[in-house]
Amino acid sequence: MGRKNSKKTGKKKEKENPNEYTGKIELTRSGMGFVVVEGLETDILIRPNDFNTALHGDRVRVRAHPERGGKRIQGFVTEVLERKQSEFVGRLEMSKGFAFCIIDGDKKMPDIFIPQNAFNNAVDNDRVVVRIKEWEKDSKKRPVGEVVNVLDPEDINDMAMKEILLENGFPIAFPDDVMEETARIPEIISPDEINKRRDFREILTFTIDPADAKDFDDAISFRVLKNGNYEIGVHIADVSHYVLPETRLDEEAYAKATSVYLPDRVNPMLPEHISNVLCSLRPKEDKLTFSAVFQMTPKGKVKQYWLGRTIIHSDHRFTYEDVQEIIEKEEGIYSDEILLLNSIAQRLRKERFDAGAINFSSTEVRFKLDEKGKPIGIVVKESKEAHQLIEEFMLLANRHVAENVSKVEINKKPVPFAYRVHDLPSEEKLLPFMAFARKFGHKFDTSTPEAIADSFNTMLRDVSGKPEQHVLEQLGIRTMAKAIYTSDNIGHYGLGFEHYCHFTSPIRRYPDIMVHRVLEQVLKAKVKPDKKMDQKCKHCSERERAAMDSERAANKYKQVEYMRDYLGEEFDGVISGVAAFGFWVETIEHKCEGMVSITSLAEYDEFRLVDTDYSLVGMRSGRKFRLGDRVRIKVIAANLDKRQLDYEWVLTPMADEPVTEEAKPKTKRKKKKVE
After folding, report:
1. Interhelix angle for 533-563 vs 248-256, to 10°?
2. Which of 177, 216, 437, 493 places its Cα 20 to 30 Å from the Cα of 94?
3. What domains are defined for the chain?
4. pLDDT at 405 over 80
5. What's the pTM value of the predicted model, to 2 decimals?
């Protein structure tokens, strides 16, 4: 794969005021604030009287105090550029004609004033969700808010999930004006709109999604052409037809930038009427789509492709389980088409890995929940050929859309576009990993990016089924850079693509809507370069990370909730992380991670962290706890408030044995999807 230099060239724009900076403010328990500025060696100290309504996590503009010396730069907030959070959980304290909401959490927060007409049926001492409506700048007045939700004190799970979402800046309900705007969108597709589009309604089309999905944002069409080749259409919900720029609906979607998937709920980017009705490609309904249509040979070679707006009529709704059964039994509705598509998908998959895509694997789990959301079981997710069928055609569409846009220039400059990029592993992370892998006989060729990818794949093939597989896979994944959105097209290293974007999930990702809009302009040759594209890409990357943090926190909560029923019991586990203060263990049976504190090991030995070996080593005994080793643990504490599991190491004859094939979890491994 050809690589571009990830460093941007050109003169750096001079700052208008050398004492002004932009960054994120972080508040401490003591009430002090620190603004983290990219490229600045030290954070800027902000005293409580200088916050100017800024709250924890907000993106702010600050001005440094040039007259104040000392080791740390001090400053004051001049403007709040972007709120991380506008809704909060707290307790209502009522007075005559008004109330204050006392906000939960360890971050310093002013009480929020609630006028009587904004109580929303809440009563004194209720735990509520409040939304800040106004807050005068440079004012000593408190923020003014409204109650948007009264929490049920008996539904602890619901409260916990909502708090996790709010902590990460995801509102739990859409504002009234957004819902009103959504309700005004016409449901009937006009003949004039149909005439503007390529019509696929008479061509076999179907969707393949999880059994519990309601937002079907992609469909596949298939037909055999007269020349013996296949026409395969990847049809994506045309969200940008309904969500128009500069509307409240668009503003709210951009602010969220992504849907969030928690174990018991989805916090959607778009209102349900759009995500599950208007834009969902439901069977037996005409739907507006944006499509990538490929002419392919039976061997999966793309002869030509077409991009544009379409209308489809899905003939059938498949679940992944339905399609997997057809693949395995070679029979069922539309089996001929499914089997041909699967054959091509597997060819595309092989070509991708042969060309340098990195083939990491991991095991993913989901919780089985009762009617109240309590976890009652854990199920291992498996990636089978049915999942890979959809994945490969989505990757194909994403790649060709990005490649198409990358060829267009405006005033001899690339069109600003939301590329999905993945940079090379940093030398800082790669070198220690290579040294560790060398202990197991694996050598890395670092002469080119392609050689590094090939070395990774060779290692992954060689360790399959060996005791060190788990640790090398885990550490290998950690060396990788994080994929982000940016207009600087440096390619996608993990996938091995020179051009890549997200085009296929606009119901749940805002960058896909941005991609659709730019693609439409390119196809019409009426491009209006978006000068804020970089800023929008950065925002979407940040919201994606916040969604991942929410999902991790919610999964951790469910793990703790599940393991509370097993206090005092012992389980086999695998060491999943090491630190100077202890090591983490993931139970083999439940995939639930907890911490073994170094203080609990003091009776056995004094342990020290050996960074280069990813292990804790006993100073007297030489006993070693290394990442990937199998250990026996006892569950000793499960703290739901802290979302924390505490384990205790159990000395057994097997405790020092490495993970063997017999000792490893009896689960199939899922190929990690790198987006």
Report:
1. 60
2. 177
3. 20-82 (2.40.50.140), 181-414+504-553 (no CATH), 419-502 (no CATH), 567-671 (2.40.50.140)
4. yes
5. 0.86
